[in-house]
Specification:
The structure holds two protein chains of two kinds.
Chain A (H helix, E strand, L loop, with lengths): L2 H17 L4 H17 L1 H16 L6 H14 L2 H13 L5 H17 L2 H18 L4 H11 L10 H10 L3 H7 L1 H21 L13 H6 L1 H19 L5 H19 L8 H32 L1 H11 L4 H16 L4 H18 L4 H15 L7 H9 L6 H7 L1 H16 L2 H9 L2
Helix pairs in contact in A: 1-2, 1-15, 2-3, 2-15, 3-15, 4-6, 4-14, 4-15, 5-6, 5-13, 6-7, 6-8, 6-11, 6-13, 7-8, 7-20, 8-20, 8-21, 9-18, 9-19, 10-23, 11-22, 13-14, 15-18, 16-18, 17-18, 17-19, 18-19, 19-22
Chain B lengths: L2 H41 L6 H22 L15 H35 L3 E2 L5 E2 L1 H27 L1 H9 L1
Antiparallel strand pairs in B: 1-2
Helix pairs in contact in B: 1-2, 1-4, 2-4, 3-4, 4-5
The chains are: A mainly alpha, B mainly alpha.
Chain lengths: ~425, ~170
C-alpha cells in the first residue's frame, strides 16, 4: 500500500472515529499514530509520541492560552458583562433596535476580554434577553442578536482560538492577534447595521424605547466597563507597539481583569478564585490535548503525502483560486455544524492550510478568515453551539427555532464580512504589516 | 456503596487534587509573567529564569489537568450520530471510544516514560538564565498521560458494568 493510500484511509478513519463518538483528541492522535506506524514503523511512531507532548507544552509562547482563558474567566465570574451591557444600553438604548445594538457592542467589548463566544452568549442571554423581551422585542431578533454577538469574542484580541490557529500552522501569534482587530470592529459595525436595517424594515420587531439616562448617569455606567475596555486597548496597543509579547499581554490582561473583578465583587471571595482556576485548567487541557493530537495527525498527513497531493491537485486544477476558497468555505460550514471551533480547526487545518498557502494566500489573512468561518458555523443549524447556549440559558423564554430564524440577517452579515475580507485583504493585513 | 464506585470517586478526588495544584500553578504563572514584564519594562532587568520556569509551569499545569478534564467529560466529542443509535449500539460505540482512548494513551505513556528515563540518565538540564534538571518535568508528562490512560480504563469498566445502575444503587 502506498503512503498516499494509507493517508486517505487515515482521513476516512478519522471522520468515522469522530462520528462514532470517540473524543476528537483520541481520534486525531490514535489515527495519526497508527498511520505513522504503518508508514515509518512502530518505533518511529513511538519516537514521535515520546517527544510531541513535552515539546508542544514546554513553550513560553504557548503559555498565552491559559493566561487568555484566565482573563476571560475572571471577567465572567466577576460579572463584568453586566457593566458592559448597562453602559452600552445607557449610551445606545435610544437607537432603532437600540437594545439589540447595545447587546452587540457590549458583547463585542466583553467578548474581547473573555475570548469565548459560548461564554459571551451565556452571559448576555442572562443579562440582555429578559431586558429585551420585557421591552417588547421580538424573540427571534433578541435571541439571534445575542447568539451572533458571541462570535465577535474570538475575532477581537485577546482570543485563544486565534492562538490555536497560530500553533497549528506555525504562524506569528502576535501578528494573528493584531490582525483580528480591524475585522472584529468592522464585523461589529456590520452586525449593528444588520440589526438597524432589520428593525427599519419591520419596526414591530423592536418597539422604540426612550431611555432617560442623564449624562452623569451615562458617565457613571462606564465606571467598570471603561477600565475593561481600557485593558483590552492596552493589550492591543502593547502587542502592536512591540512593548510586550502575547504571553506577557495574557499575564497582564489576566492580572488587570482580576483587579477589576476584586473591585466589583468587593473582595476576592466573590471572584471564587479556585473555581475560576479550575475552569481555566479544564479548558486549557482540552485545547492542548487537541492541539498535540492534531500535530501527530498533521505529521502523518505530511508523511503520507496527502496534504501535498491535495494541494497539488487543487493548484493544478484549471479553476480560479477563489473557486477553491468557495469549496473550503462550504467544507467549513458543513463541518462547523457538527463540532466545536478548536476541534474543527485541528481536524481541517493540516489539509486546508497547505492548500491555501500553495494557492498564494497569506497565512495571517487565512487565520482571520477561517476563524470567522468556524464562528459562522457555530450559529448555523443543526449544531449551532451558540444557539443551543442561548436557548438553554434563556430558561424557556425562547425556542431553538426562534434563534435560528432570527439569525438569517446576521448570518448574511457574516457572509458580507467574508466577502469584504476577500475583496479587501488589507482589512486583516494592514495592522500586522505595520506592527513593530 | 459498591467497590468500583468507591474506586471511581476516590480516583476523582485524587484527580481534583491534581487539578487544584494545576490551577494554582496557573495563578503563579500569571504572577511570574507579570513580574517579569514589569521588571523588564521598568528596570530593563527581567526576572532571572522567568522564561524557562514559565515553560515548565505550562507543561505541569496541562498534564496535571488532562485526566480530570476527561473524568468530568470535558474533552470534545461529537454525539450527533451516536445519540440516534439504538441503546445497545450506543453502549458499544461508547465502549469502543473508551477502549481506543485507553490503548492510545497507554502507548503515549510508554513513549513518554522512555523519554523521561533518557532525560534522567543524562541528567538533562534546562539551559538559560537559570539551570535546573528537566527530567522531573518530563516525568510529569508521563504522570499526566498514565493518569489519563487509567481514567479511560476506569471509564471503560464503568460503562461495561453499567455506571448509571451503580449510581442509582449508591444514591439509594
Amino acid at each position: 500500500m502506498t503512503g498516499l493510500e494509507i493517508g486517505f484511509i487515515g482521513v476516512c478513519a478519522l471522520f468515522a472515529a469522530i462520528l462514532l463518538g470517540v473524543n476528537v483528541m483520541v481520534a486525531l492522535g490514535a489515527v495519526g499514530a497508527a498511520g505513522l506506524a504503518s508508514i515509518v514503523g512502530v518505533k518511529g511512531a513511538t519516537a514521535m509520541l515520546s517527544t510531541v507532548f513535552f515539546d508542544t507544552t514546554h513553550s513560553f509562547h504557548f503559555s498565552v492560552i491559559p493566561l487568555f482563558l484566565l482573563m476571560g474567566f475572571f471577567a465572567m465570574r466577576a460579572g463584568l458583562g453586566e457593566d458592559m451591557f448597562e453602559a452600552a444600553s445607557k449610551w445606545l438604548g435610544n437607537l432603532k433596535g437600540g437594545l439589540a445594538i447595545s447587546t452587540t457592542i457590549g458583547a463585542a467589548a466583553f467578548g474581547a476580554a473573555s475570548g469565548s463566544s459560548v461564554g459571551t452568549a451565556t452571559v448576555f442571554t442572562k443579562l440582555a434577553l429578559p431586558e429585551m423581551l420585557s421591552r417588547g422585542y421580538d424573540k427571534r431578533l433578541a435571541s439571534a442578536s445575542i447568539a451572533i454577538a458571541g462570535t465577535l469574542a474570538v475575532m477581537i484580541p485577546p482570543s485563544a482560538l486565534v492562538v490555536v490557529y497560530g500553533i497549528l500552522t506555525d504562524s506569528s501569534i502576535g501578528g494573528l492577534l493584531i490582525a483580528g482587530v480591524i475585522p472584529g470592529l468592522v464585523f461589529a459595525v456590520i452586525l449593528c447595521f444588520a440589526t438597524y436595517v432589520t428593525v427599519l424594515r419591520n419596526p414591530a420587531l423592536a418597539p422604540p424605547i426612550k431611555t432617560d439616562a442623564t449624562l452623569p448617569e451615562k458617565l457613571y455606567s462606564l465606571r467598570l466597563a471603561g477600565p475593561l475596555v481600557l485593558v483590552i486597548v492596552c493589550i492591543i496597543a502593547g502587542l502592536y507597539l512591540g512593548i510586550f509579547t502575547p504571553t506577557e499581554a495574557g499575564g497582564i490582561g489576566a492580572g488587570l481583569t482580576l483587579i477589576l473583578a476584586v473591585i466589583r465583587q468587593r473582595g476576592l471571595k466573590g471572584v471564587r478564585l479556585t473555581k475560576t482556576l479550575m475552569d481555566t485548567i479544564r479548558t486549557s487541557a482540552m485545547i492542548f490535548a487537541i492541539i498535540i493530537c492534531a500535530l501527530v495527525f498533521s505529521k502523518f498527513l505530511a508523511l503520507s503525502g496527502v496534504a501535498n497531493a491535495l494541494g497539488g491537485f487543487l493548484t493544478t486544477l484549471d479553476v480560479n483560486r477563489w473557486v477553491v476558497v468557495a469549496i473550503i468555505v462550504g467544507i467549513y460550514l458543513v463541518l462547523g455544524m457538527m463540532m466545536d471551533a478548536p476541534a474543527l480547526l485541528a481536524i481541517t487545518l493540516p489539509i486546508t492550510h497547505p492548500v491555501m498557502m500553495k494557492l498564494g494566500f497569506d497565512p495571517i489573512w487565512f487565520g482571520v478568515f477561517v476563524v470567522l468561518l468556524v464562528e459562522i458555523g457555530a450559529v448555523t443549524p443543526p449544531v449551532g453551539i451558540n444557539c443551543f447556549v442561548v436557548q438553554a440559558a434563556s430558561d424557556g423564554r425562547v425556542r431553538l427555532e426562534d434563534v435560528f430564524k432570527g439569525l438569517v440577517p446576521f448570518v448574511l452579515a457574516g457572509f458580507v464580512m467574508l466577502v469584504l475580507l476577500c475583496v479587501f485583504p488589507q482589512i486583516a493585513l494592514f495592522l500586522p504589516q505595520t506592527m513593530k | 456503596m459498591p467497590l468500583f464506585e468507591r474506586i471511581w470517586r476516590g480516583y476523582g478526588r485524587f484527580l481534583y487534587a491534581c487539578g487544584f495544584v494545576a490551577g494554582y500553578t496557573t495563578f503563579a504563572m500569571m504572577l511570574l509573567v507579570i513580574a517579569n514584564a514589569i521588571s523588564r519594562f521598568l528596570f530593563n532587568a527581567p526576572v532571572a529564569g522567568a522564561f524557562e520556569v514559565t515553560e515548565s509551569m505550562l507543561t505541569v499545569l496541562i498534564f496535571l489537568s488532562l485526566a480530570l478534564t476527561q473524568y468530568e467529560g470535558g474533552h470534545i466529542q461529537v454525539v450527533l450520530l451516536t445519540q440516534r443509535l439504538p441503546h445497545g449500539l450506543q453502549k458499544l460505540a461508547r465502549l469502543f471510544a473508551l477502549a481506543l482512548g485507553a490503548v492510545f494513551f497507554a502507548w503515549c505513556s510508554q513513549a513518554a516514560w522512555g523519554y523521561a528515563l533518557k532525560s534522567f540518565a543524562i541528567n538533562e538540564q534546562q539551559w538559560g538564565a537559570i539551570r535546573y534538571p528537566l527530567y522531573p518535568v518530563k516525568f510529569m508528562v508521563f504522570f499526566g498521560l498514565i493518569l489519563l490512560a487509567i481514567q479511560y480504563v476506569l471509564g471503560f469498566v464503568r460503562e461495561l458494568i453499567g455506571g448509571e445502575h451503580i449510581e442509582e444503587l449508591a444514591s439509594q
